[in-house]
Amino acid sequence: MYIYSYHQLARDKVNRIKLGYSAYAETESLASLIKRELRAQNIHVYEDVTDIGSWFIPE
Questions:
Q1: Distance in angstroms (rounded) separating the CA atoms of residues 49 and 3
Q2: What is the pTM of this model?
Q3: Tens of pLDDT along 4-17?
Q4: Looking at CB atoms within 10 Å, which of 3, 44, 49, 50 has the fewest?
Q5: How many Cβ atoms from other residues are within 10 Å of residue 56's Cβ?
Q6: Is-contact 57 20, C-beta < 8 A?
């Protein structure tokens, strides 16, 4: 079985955002990791927070 860490998942989602795709975070902890990675790479996105998760949409 392969274990996929939240940190790697956040980096992968940020890489998709850099390619122009939207990313979805199912949990607050994943959304927090994505936001941290976006800030570190100075990437600006629109964030749509819903009751069931957060969408990160490239500007």
A1: 27
A2: 0.90
A3: 899 999 999 999 99
A4: 3
A5: 22
A6: no
